[in-house]
Amino acid sequence: MNFFKLIVDDSNDDDVVVHCENTHGFKQYELKEGKFIENWNDTITFHFNLHEGSEFTDYLANNLGWFIVSKKFKNLIEK
């Protein structure tokens, strides 16, 4: 079995980087513990500046280091 580390390709200056200002009680690294979160808060929102990037990638860089992927990417790795 092969394993690969995902990293953000920062060679394109037009890629969107999202920011979350209010995690509604979640700690920054809580999602990296591998635990199922039953009390997810749907009001958590991410913001980005169109002047800093306009190209959405399938793996979004963000200020929290959270694993944020597109539905396309999610479907691909589920298979």
- Envelope shape: globular
Whole-number mean pLDDT? 86
Strand content: 5-15%
> Could you estimate the helical fraction of the residues in percent?
10-25%
Number of strands: 3
For this structure, the quaternary state is: single chain
Poorly predicted tracts of residues: none
User: What is the terminal separation in angstroms?
Assistant: 15 Å
Mind telling me the C-alpha Rg?
14 Å
Structural class computed from helices and strand pairing? little secondary structure
Sheet with the most strands, sense and barrel status: 3 strands, mixed
Count of helix runs:
1
Word description of this protein:
- This protein has 79 residues and is low in regular secondary structure.
- It has a domain at 45-79.
- 10% of the residues lie in helices and 10% in strands.
- It has a 3-stranded mixed sheet.
- A hairpin with a 5-residue loop joins strand 2 and strand 3.
- The model has no long low-confidence stretch (mean pLDDT 86).
